[in-house]
Amino acid sequence: MENELFTNDVILVNKLKYGPRLPRSPFDIPIINIGCHFNKNAKKRKKENWWPYKRLSGTTTIQRGDIMVFNSTWKKDFILVKRCTGLPGDTLTIKETSVFINGKEYKETNAVKKEYSFIVNDKNVDFKKITDSLQLDVNYNNATFVKGFLTKQQLEHLTKDDLIQFVKDTIINKRKTKTFDKTKTLAWTIDNMGPF
């Protein structure tokens, strides 16, 4: 959702679609929460969940491609906006940055950014000015060799105007972080993982 939501965007959420979540503390209930702020014992428990998680049934079920808004599990007031890629029973695999669901490639939106490596064609053209005017996230390693996070449309714009040559996806094959456990059979990276 990085390229589809911007600062100061307003998001309208239909809480009835998947079923509204019941309050987990009096602080989640409008008007009642005002009284809780004046109670010292209640105020100490503001960040706690007082009641178990429950949700009423909704008007529909989650479909692939739906955009969902939900609270994170690590911080109560941190809100995430994500697109649903897999459903219960699906097998997901990521091979060289492409997502496969049940063995078929998932068509991503045009706003998805991937990392590319390329060579600038004409050294006389001020490539930095062009990429800055297009608001592209590009890392200049030296005068001609460049890496950048681009959408398909941004990449097409640069190749169409013959500004770049030798385009290739940058695929992370080495584990740079401890995100995944290392085992004898699994060597997952952020660009190659699964099936799960």
What do you see in this structure?
With 196 residues, the protein is an alpha+beta fold. It has a domain of 106 residues: Alpha-Beta Plaits. Helices cover 14% and strands 22% of the residues. It is built from four helices and nine strands. Strand 7 and strand 8 form a beta hairpin. The longest helix has 9 residues. The radius of gyration is 23 Å and the shape is elongated. The model has no long low-confidence stretch (mean pLDDT 77).
Q: What order do the helices and strands come in, and which of them pair?
A:
Blueprint: H1 32-38, H2 40-44, E1 67-71, E2 79-83, E3 92-95, E4 98-101, E5 104-105, E6 114-120, H3 127-133, E7 137-140, E8 145-150, H4 152-160, E9 164-169
Antiparallel strand pairs: 1-2, 3-4, 4-5, 6-8, 6-9, 7-8
Summarize this entry quickly.
With 196 residues, this protein is an alpha+beta fold. The chain is built from four helices and nine strands. A hairpin with a 7-residue loop joins strand 1 (67-71) and strand 2.
